[in-house]
User: What shape does this take?
Amino acid sequence: MTNNEKEAICQQHRIYLSIIYSLGNKVIVMKQLFAYAKALGITNTYSVFLDHIHELVSAEIIRQEAFTAYNKTTSLHMLTLRKFGIRYISGIGW
Assistant: This one.
């Protein structure tokens, strides 16, 4: 995927990246991000939200990983901004 394609995806989902960057300090629980997105009126259904997240993950803008506690994997997933997402939101390199 080219940087121009990644930038287009970042522009399309800028609000998610802004929430992760500012409220989560570059890391957020996926359920928490959905709650913020629903409260702000960005999305109403979890399936649409998941489509947006999977698009960001496949473009390597964010990383999705299972949250582990006491060496056990939980049903929670952490979303972490990757280098390209951080540079896009902070304005470095543009």
Summary: The chain has a mean pLDDT of 91.
